[in-house]
Amino acid sequence: MSIPAPVATGTFLYLIMGVAFLGLIFASRLTGRLSKDNADIANVVVVICTFATWLFWLCAWMHQWHPLIKPIYEE
């Protein structure tokens, strides 16, 4: 059994998004716009937020992939 292509693509995009945000935090830390403590907090927030939004997207996608309840059309 293989992973469906939309799940792999979406997971890859969320991974890229998380790395991009971590890169922005790292750049802000290097330029001095963020202190070390604030950068550490931002790193944790970005990781948790990226995981939570990916998990929410994955659950929504899975629920629509093979629905348990199908609509009944009345004529």
TrEMBL record:
TM annotation in the entry: 12-30, 42-63
Principal location listed in the UniProt entry: membrane
Xref: InterPro entries: ATPase_V0-cplx_e1/e2_su
Cellular component annotations (GO), alphabetically ordered: membrane
Localization: Membrane
GO biological process, alphabetically ordered: proton transmembrane transport
Keywords: Hydrogen ion transport, Ion transport, Membrane, Transmembrane, Transmembrane helix, Transport
One Pfam assignment: ATP_synt_H
Coiled-coil stretches noted in the UniProt entry, renumbered to this chain: none
Membrane topology: Multi-pass membrane protein
Entry's family note: Belongs to the V-ATPase e1/e2 subunit family.
UniProt-recorded name of the protein: Uncharacterized protein
Organism from which the protein derives: Cyclotella atomus
